[in-house]
Specification:
Radius of gyration: 30 Å
Largest sheet: 10 strands, mixed
Strand content: 5-15%
Shape: globular
Number of helices: 33
């Protein structure tokens, strides 16, 4: 007789009391697991019950407890997530029930386990607090079709035992303790800005660490357990591993934080921070340049400050392109697939305990996207990925490349980022209190938020829109027209038509939200206009950029004077632990005090730099400069070998660049307005300068031009060709494939950082801010952040900020001024030495730049400004706000 469902449930389901009793009886997680599987096998009347634990690499399962399989397999039977039916359960994070296992394409027979007589299989994921811990499996000798209620009840049993499984993974040693802690460090990008953790991974195998692009997951996947334990013993790493792991746990669990004091209102409804790219580390290639690196630094500082924030972006399977130059110096692009298994990502789990998939309806079809979760310290980063079964080939490729494709690809990516990103948050049970749009790419998120509010509250667009807009902060990053995405009405209707229907808007009504002149039917839809119209708080990223933005968008606010246009500014800053060299970090520890970096956004912290001995600061800088030059030589030689250069060229590249010469660095996107070739305006003066035997100057360059920016590629080619000119061959080196690692070495090692954009087209620029932290000096046009930073003694200025309506006159004047400042100010100060060989005047300026700028152009200061001036007010968390009557 078949029992009714509720009777079967009573027989099957484990109670918390039973599990607690089993735990008390054994006192050890491994024994508790054995008792649990025995109880489940009896309750479900199956021949086998097993628990497989997910190993720290999150790519393999290990048999941890079983009744019915051979006991000697416990701790030794391993399978990847791509193997067998248990692997399928873990890979898809959902139940798998098979009546006849041999007929299933994922069936794999493990002879050593004694599975030959087993026919049926039911496996369910074990999930604790939204994170996959392992797989619970029951099997029978007879063919058995598991009904829905049995699947549900085994799922409930898995939920009940999840805490025991989690404890077993943490406390019971199915793997070595050192390996487990290293994997815990590797799975959270906190390691990337922690000097001790980075040093641990490097010391395990310095050569492979460099070859694997500083990816700890790839490194740990390569090192067998026996070798890891041997290396840890040889290098006495166990104490360092324990220390780094303990500090990570203390960091994650700390509750006395700046955010706990100042941003508590955001805890129940966090900030949702949308960005098209995130530059967090070179091993996670989902960024192209400044915008992404700024977003990465924002997230890291939000983590350090403990701001309740969830970041939302896209996962680009091929990332941004790899750059290669041919013998003529012309740039070629190469796109390589990224192996997800080598990244610190896992499927995002929704409210129902299942991996999240979002769907976005267009007029033509539905686009599906899975959602990955990346841990960035205390912050979750959600990345949407359309490479899923069921999508068309076109849609599967949608998120393959960053900034690739035409307008149709871009509008679809931005639809996915905005609408899909907001839906992913809802699927995770997150109701954001603030939407922060980092540029206009994610502007469609506001429309989805309005639609959601309309649906939840039964109100119209006009009623919902003001309520949503007061919770939106919009940051614009570019005064360059090409930086503002625009789409024609056909693309908007094709892709946003269903959303428009949900909003109750006409086509013209929707287009009006993205038009400067709503009455012009020929004007395209601008994402920046959408962001400005649907946000209560909008900001530029430097004081000068604020002025430029107010002038640029004054037409959106008829009747308002330019100064009254409601666009403010919060100047960008950089994340200090990410960009500060370890040697400088230790110097600051000695002179600014232990824990100084936790208060690096406060000016008082930096006063101690004046007490540093000049010789100590200079020697530290020279060691970083030496490291940079060694890196540049190695990369230059590797590039030449790839191009098949002659042996004498390779030998020459081993000797390029002198540690004694003034070294000027330039690394950034090769857009024409950044004028990388301004230096070439007077080639004879340049040759005289670099070949002066008493006061030589040398230059290191890096950067990428957008694949479709032919003028930018020609500028890059001009610079690269100097490496083949006999006048400059040993004094100019271009390093290919600019990324975070290249940028890090450049900003930590140069004497001078050159920045000469065509004012006022640089919104902020943050590379020079990273140089400040490491004691380098800026030589820059007073544009972006430098316009508010330069005080006459903390670096060098190219001109006074004058511009000219004639671009050629403007560039010619700036070029002349660049040569004048180099010849009259920079070079003499650098080579003016005392009897100890120290450039005292130069070091004095180094100290001043660190003291006056280190705290101001700092991501902690930036995120605190966003929190107090945007996030908390948008969330209704201010305790006073007195408005002046007109």
């Amino acid at each position: 007789m078949t029992l009714p469902v509720n009777a079967r449930a009573a027989n099957y389901v484990l109670t918390l009391e039973e599990i607690g009793n089993l735990a008390e009886e054994s006192g050890k997680p491994a024994e508790t697991l054995m008792n649990v599987v025995a109880l489940i096998a009896a309750r479900f009347q199956t021949d086998v019950c097993s628990v497989y634990l997910l190993e720290p690499d999150r790519a393999n399962l290990v048999l941890a407890a079983t009744v019915g399989l051979r006991p000697e397999c416990i701790g030794t039977l391993r399978l990847t997530l791509h193997e067998g039916l248990a692997g399928l359960v873990a890979e898809q994070v959902r139940p798998v029930a098979v009546g006849q296992v041999a007929s299933h394409p994922r069936f794999k027979y493990f002879k050593e386990a004694g599975e030959e007589s087993l026919q049926s299989f039911l496996g369910v994921p074990i999930v604790e607090r939204g994170v996959l811990q392992g797989v619970l499996v029951v099997q029978t000798v007879e063919t058995r079709m598991f009904p829905e209620d049995e699947i549900r009840m085994l799922t409930e049993a898995a939920a009940q035992v999840a805490p025991v499984v989690s404890e077993a993974r943490t406390l019971d040693r199915f793997i070595a303790p050192a390996q487990e802690k290293l994997w815990a460090l590797a799975r959270n990008l906190w390691w990337s800005w922690d000097q001790d953790s980075t040093g641990l991974f490097r010391d395990l195998d310095p050569v492979r660490w460099r070859e694997l692009n500083h990816n700890p997951i790839s490194l740990l996947n390569e090192i067998p357990l026996s070798k890891l334990e041997r290396r840890a013993g040889e290098l006495v790493l166990h104490g360092r591993i324990n220390y780094a792991y303990r500090r990570q746990q203390e960091y994650l669990q700390a509750d006395r934080t700046w955010g706990a004091t100042h941003a508590g209102v955001l805890r129940p409804r966090p900030v949702a921070y949308f960005s098209a790219e995130f530059g967090l580390h070179e091993s996670l290639p989902i960024y192209s340049g400044g915008l992404g690196v700024l977003a990465g630094d924002h997230v890291k500082s939000a983590s350090d400050l403990d701001i309740p924030l969830v970041a939302v972006g896209l996962f680009y399977g091929q990332g941004y392109f790899r750059q290669r130059l041919d013998r003529t110096g012309w740039q070629h692009e190469e796109y390589l697939p990224t192996d997800v298994s080598q990244l610190p990502m896992e499927p995002a789990i929704g409210k129902k305990g299942e991996p999240i998939t979002v769907h976005i309806q267009t007029r033509g079809a539905s686009i599906a996207a899975k959602v990955w979760r990346v841990k960035v310290g205390r912050i979750d980063l959600l990345l949407l990925d359309t490479n899923v079964d069921g999508n068309t080939p076109e849609d599967r490729e949608l998120t393959s490349r960053l900034y690739g494709g035409d307008g149709r690809v871009r509008v679809r990516q931005e639809l996915l980022l905005g609408v899909g990103g907001f839906r992913a948050l809802k699927a995770m049970g997150i109701t954001p209190g603030v939407l922060h749009l980092n540029e206009g790419h994610s502007g469609f998120a506001v429309l989805e938020a309005i639609r959601s509010r309309m649906e939840e509250e039964g109100v119209s667009f006009d009623e919902a829109q003001p309520h949503v807009s007061r919770e939106v902060a919009f940051t614009t990053h570019t005064p360059v027209p090409a930086g503002h995405d625009r789409f024609n009405g056909g693309l908007i209707e094709e892709h946003l038509g269903p959303l428009r229907d949900g909003l109750g808007l006409s086509h013209d009504g929707l287009m009006a939200l993205g038009r400067e002149n709503p009455g012009n039917p020929h004007e395209e839809f601008c994402m920046t206009v959408l962001g400005l119209k649907l946000s209560r708080r909008a900001n530029a990223v430097s004081a000068l950029h604020g002025e430029v933005s107010r002038a640029m968008w004054t037409g959106l606010y008829p009747g308002k004077a330019e100064d009254a246009v409601p666009i403010g500014h919060i100047t960008n800053g950089v994340h200090v632990p990410t960009w500060l060299a370890p040697q400088m970090f230790r110097l600051y520890d000695r002179h600014l005090g232990i824990g100084w970096h936790e208060h690096s956004g406060e000016s008082r912290i930096w006063e101690g730099i004046e007490n540093v001995d000049d010789g100590e600061l200079w020697e530290t800088h020279l060691s970083l400069k030496s490291r940079l030059l060694e890196f540049v030589r190695r990369r230059a030689k590797d590039q030449a070998e790839r191009r098949g250069e002659q042996a004498e060229t390779l030998q020459r590249l081993n000797r390029v660049l002198s540690p004694d010469a003034l070294t000027v660095g330039f690394a950034r996107r090769f857009a024409t307005y950044k004028r990388a070739n301004l230096l070439l305006a007077d080639i004879e003066k340049l040759a005289s300068m670099v070949n002066d035997p008493n006061r030589p100057v040398q230059f290191v360059f890096a950067g990428k031009a957008h694949p479709r920016d032919e003028p930018g590629k020609r500028v890059l080619q001009q610079i690269a060709e100097l490496m083949r000119d006999s006048q400059f061959a040993d004094k100019f080196v271009f390093v290919e494939d600019y990324d975070i690692n290249v940028g890090r070495l450049f900003v930590q090692g140069v004497d001078v950082w050159l920045n000469n954009p065509r004012r006022p087209l640089e919104a902020s620029g943050t590379s020079g801010q990273k140089v400040v932290l490491n004691g380098g000096l800026n030589l820059s046009v007073p544009d972006g952040w430098w316009a508010e930073a330069y005080d006459g003694l903390n670096g060098f200025s190219i001109g006074t900020g004058r511009t000219h309506s004639n671009m050629q006159v403007h560039d010619s004047r700036d070029g002349e001024e660049l040569y004048r400042v180099l010849h009259d100010e920079v070079i003499p100060l650098f080579y003016q030495r005392d009897r100890d060989g120290l450039p005292r005047g130069w070091i004095k300026r180094m100290k001043r730049t660190i003291r006056t700028l280190g705290w101001r152009f700092n991501a902690n200061r930036m995120v605190m400004d966003y929190t107090l001036k945007c996030y908390v007010p948008a969330a209704g968390g201010t305790s006073s706000d007195m408005r002046i009557r007109g």
